[in-house]
Design goal:
The protein has eight helices and no strands. The chain is mainly α. The longest helix has 21 residues. The radius of gyration is 21 Å and the shape is elongated. The model has no long low-confidence stretch (mean pLDDT 82).
Length: 155
Amino acid sequence: MSPNRPHPSIAPRRSATTALDYKGNFIDDPISHFHTQFVDKLNQNAGNVLSTSERTTAINLFSGAGDSSNTTARAQALRQVAEDQDLFSAEFNRAFVLTEFFGYLRRNPNDPPDSDYTGYDFWLSKLNQFNGDYIGAEMVKAFIASSEYRQRFGP
């Protein structure tokens, strides 16, 4: 790959974020937002994943503009939030726990015998406590050893 050419995955990402940004319902009336409001709304919707310096970097993409009408800067800010490692980790952990329920118990987390998300919340908290280390959190072991799994798939 030539050092002067971007990675092949970059162009589709740019295209997708720009297309999303043009959708009218992406953020209510985003053009009239000050750039700080635009970045803060993105960050809020993502669960406040940006650090202070990451937020400042995203705001600086607008180069001092008074509003967020610069579509290139908006797309870059969106990508910065969407590709944030903290957001990835949080969403990965949520998806991993959900996959455990689907894969081992063949059900949604709030389906019987549960009536709410208490079990899901427990495992998500435990996985977060172990910084995403599902082996250290003994998640797979616990799902396989559970009476629900054994009754459904065991001997």
